[in-house]
Design a protein that fits this description.
Elements: H1 4-19, H2 23-27, E1 31-36, E2 39-40, E3 46-51, E4 54-58, E5 63-68, E6 77-82, H3 90-102, E7 105-109, E8 112-116, E9 122-127
Antiparallel strand pairs: 1-2, 1-3, 1-9, 3-4, 4-5, 5-6, 7-8, 8-9
Length: about 130
């Protein structure tokens, strides 16, 4: 027999789970950056949600990681760290990290992850899986 409290909690939990993208759905997916702002992004760069509060990936030259200080669909990377390998794509990597640090929202639709900034910048990633 259910108590009145349990009958109330189930619908509330169902509504809350529908409000934000599930981090577990993102955990195993690696997304590759396809577009940055108005054009294609040619160097390879990826992002993966390791946990609801952590991302990691491969920038054009280096592996990186950051913690997220907001809950999805808000996106607020903080403390972005990376390895320090040199390569021919360091300029593109600097552009990638600058844009990633400006993003404030995340939206997932099918195999597409879109990050947006308040200034109108956009990063469009496609799932590799």
């Amino acid at each position: 027999m259910q108590s009145d409290g349990m009958r109330f909690m189930f619908p509330v939990l169902m509504l809350l789970s529908a409000c934000a993208p599930a981090a577990s759905a993102l955990d195993s997916r690696v997304f590759s950056l396809a577009y940055l702002d108005d054009g294609p992004f040619a160097p390879r760069a990826t992002i993966r949600f390791v946990a609801p509060e952590q991302i990691e990936g491969q920038a054009p030259c280096n592996r990186y990681g950051a913690r997220l200080t907001a809950t999805l669909p808000a996106f607020a990377p903080a403390g972005i760290t990376s390895t320090e390998m040199a390569c021919e794509a360091l300029a593109a990597e600097a552009v990638f990290f600058e844009a990633l640090g400006e993003m404030t929202s995340a939206e997932i639709e099918g195999d597409t992850l879109t990050l947006r900034s308040p200034e109108g910048r956009i990063m469009v990633f496609k799932s590799q899986d």
